[in-house]
Amino acid sequence: MDSWLVVGLGNPGPGYAANRHNVGAMVVTELAQRLSAPFKSHKANAQVAEGRPLPGGPKLVLAKPNSYMNTSGGPVANLVKYFSLPVERVIVVHDDLDIPFDSIKLKTGGGHGGQNGVRDIIKALGTPDFVRVRVGIGRPPGRQDPADYVLRDFAGAEKTQLPVLLADAADAVELVVAEGLPAAQLKYHSR
Question: Is 108 exposed, middle or buried (0-12, 13-18, 19+ CB in 10 A)?
């Protein structure tokens, strides 16, 4: 078994494409560009691209669910079943309000931390034991509602740093696949 399912969470459609909530989908798009792999519609209700970062290395199945964030579990469970993957070979990339912008944290298992896409995936898979690449988007300023904040586009200064953040998160996914979660945690948690 040399495949990994890498799911980038977000909401479908151009109106959401640049939202903070879609940073997971942006990371998966970055990975697909690196592999020169086009996204195609998949019967699991997702856009899927496949490729290998290294010749002879593990295959990445990159997916962006066509569902809204809060119902990400169905497409993810369908893809896990379709590709016959163990849950340990699933990496979910998502935004995290509790991590400062420009930071990445990685973990396996645990709770959903209020992230509704992750909550739905845990429910659909029946286990929390998949890898998460949590991309920091920071807390909303002042009294702004977090629900509004995540559905807004990145602000001016963030926009200039965003390509670096997306590249770092994509690198982190590739490191998990190549060397395992502890190696990736060591690199990204010690920054």
Answer: middle
CA nearest neighbour of 99 among 128, 67, 131, 135: 135
Residue boundaries of the structural domains of the chain: 3-189
Packing angle, helices 181-189 and 156-179, rounded to 10 = 150
User: pTM for this structure?
Assistant: 0.97
Give the CATH number of domain 3-189; options: 3.40.640.10, 3.40.50.1470, 3.30.450.20, 3.40.50.1000. Answer: 3.40.50.1470
Specify burial of residue 133 (Cβ count, 10 A radius: 0-12, 13-18, 19+): buried
Catalytic entry in 21, 94, 112, 189: 21
Q: Is the pLDDT of residue 191 over 80?
A: no
Q: Is 21 considered catalytic here?
A: yes
- pLDDT one-digit tens code per residue, 92-129: 999 999 999 999 999 999 999 999 999 999 999 999 99
